[in-house]
Structures are given as structure tokens and as C-alpha cells.
């Protein structure tokens, strides 16, 4: 029997994390203004999220494997949602940093547990599903950002905004428990459990995730700057560039499972990486606003399937230790998301932004050439 309820439940947890992340992103300016923070002080709060993510990843994988993903994903989802409320009521920078660090820890737990359970649902279906799960995260991010913008327009405080959005999500997370697969804790027949070590295939998949998420971070932080400062567009038109990228990435993720089923992960990643490189490279070479937006659209569509395929391959590398493998790959991937924009910004100071944006182009080509490392799993070609 195909566990359709489990697929819906896992999709919900991906959407939950996207919604919470999106509503936070939309209310950052108000939090900054209400606490009278400088850009540097705000960056400390954002850094706290990143530190919490990285530290949380080191424990989330082992806990998920030890207890089973179904036993972790629900409490992680509930607490990750509710942990977004305290930052909205933080009275000063110190409290904001502590609460955002805690949210980062819980974010990591949910991320690992839901991706691990997603791999289990994929196996039960016998076909690729990971791309559409990540598509739900992208769609949730757009929904959360829209909700945050609406509450901001209505003049609702960040704390009440977060409570209004996350409390219902926490309730739904509890209700989703019944639909999850009855995943059991992992036990090994060949002696005591050992950690997945940082070498070989897991490390290489982490490098691929790093490469893919550098591209996502570059689009988020630098696409509008490139359109406005290098191509001379207005700020409103420049913002459309990232909207185009986000839209094609979301559409591509929902189409990704069928593409993976038809072509297999190796060919899909090979051609997707090439398409992403052509899209961003074309946007840089054309140096025209319309061509650049079209290029960002291709860039988003190409990137959309890359990271989900890597996460799926990591989870299937050693099913008994799927949580640890996903946690390690995610750690390197999110390092790319956080460090990529900084690296590009530093390079832009030396060679200019158009040439600096060539870095993600090269990394997309690296992913294309590395696609063979994803071959194959039980449901892939």
C-alpha cells in the first residue's frame, strides 16, 4: 500500500519550515527598527541563526538515527515553529541573539529529521519525491513572506505576527504525527554504531551541496544589486530579478521528481547544472536587464533540482545512518549558503561584481561534471 498520508505529512513539514523562515525574513526590517539596531548589530543576530544551525546539525543526525525520524520530526516541527515567537518579543540585542540561536538549533533538527523521513517515503513509493518536498519548502517560503508582508502592512508587531502564524502550524504538526511512516531506530548487526566519517562519498556530496547553495545565496543577495548597480535598472525592477529566480526554482522543484524518474539523477543533475551555468553566465555576458532576468530564470530552474537530488543520494548512501549523512551534507551545503554571498562580495571588491558572479557559474559546472557520484539508488536509473 502506497503511504500517501506520509507523503502529505512530510510535505507539510517542509512547508512549515519554509513558512517560518519566510515570515521571519519578511519581518527582519521591523525587528531591526524596533530594537534600534545597526546593520552590524543585526548581522550578529543573523549569525546566531547560522551558528545554531551548524551546531544543531552535529547532533540532529545522530538523534534522528537513534530514535527514528518519525519520533523526531514532530517535536522538532512543533518547537521550531514556536521558537520563532520569542525573537519577535526580544527587548534587546542580547535576547534576540539567544533566541535566534535556539531557533537555529531547532531548525537544524527539523531539517535533518524531515529530509530523513522524506528518504524513507521515497523508498516506500519506489520513485523520486525529494524535489517536490523541497518545492513545498520554497512554496512555504513565498507564503510565509507574503503573510509577513501582510501583517506588516496591517501594523501588527513581529511577535504577534509570529504567534499568529506559528501556533496553528504547531497544532497541525502534532496532528500530522499519525500519517508518518512507523520508522524504527537504526540498529547495526555488525557491531556498535559508528558515526559517518567526513570522507569519501559523503564529503563529496557535501561539496556538491555547497556548490548548489552558493548559487542560491548569490541569487538572493546579489541579483538585485547586479541589476541595479551594474545594469542601471530601478530598484523595483531590480527586485523582480530575484522574484523570477524564486518562481522558476519553485516550479522546477515541483517538476523535478518527474524529470528524475524519466532521466535518472545523474543525467538530471548533469543537464541541470549545465542549464544553471548557461543561465547565469548568459545573464552576465548579455549585460542587458531583460536578458539578465531571463538568465536568472534559467539559473533558478537549473538549480532547483540539484540540491534535492544530493540530499536524496546522501540519505540512501547508508540507510541505517541516513540522518547523519544528511546532517553532514546539509552542514556543508548551508555553509555555502552563508559563505557564498560573502565570498562573492569579497571577490567583487577586487574584480567587480559581474566577474565575481562567475564563481557560481563555475560551481554549477562542477556539479554537472560531478553528477556521476549520485548513481544510483533502488528507484533511480
TrEMBL record:
SUPFAM superfamilies in the cross-refs: MFS general substrate transporter (SSF103473)
Annotated Major facilitator superfamily (MFS) profile domain residues: 6-381
Subcellular location per the Swiss-Prot or TrEMBL entry: Cell membrane
InterPro entries: MFS (IPR011701), MFS_dom (IPR020846), MFS_trans_sf (IPR036259), MFS_Transporter (IPR051788)
Keyword Protein biosynthesis: no
CDD domains the record matches: MFS_MosC_like (cd17393)
Protein known as: MFS transporter
Lineage, opening ranks: Bacteria, Bacillati, Actinomycetota, Actinomycetes, Streptosporangiales
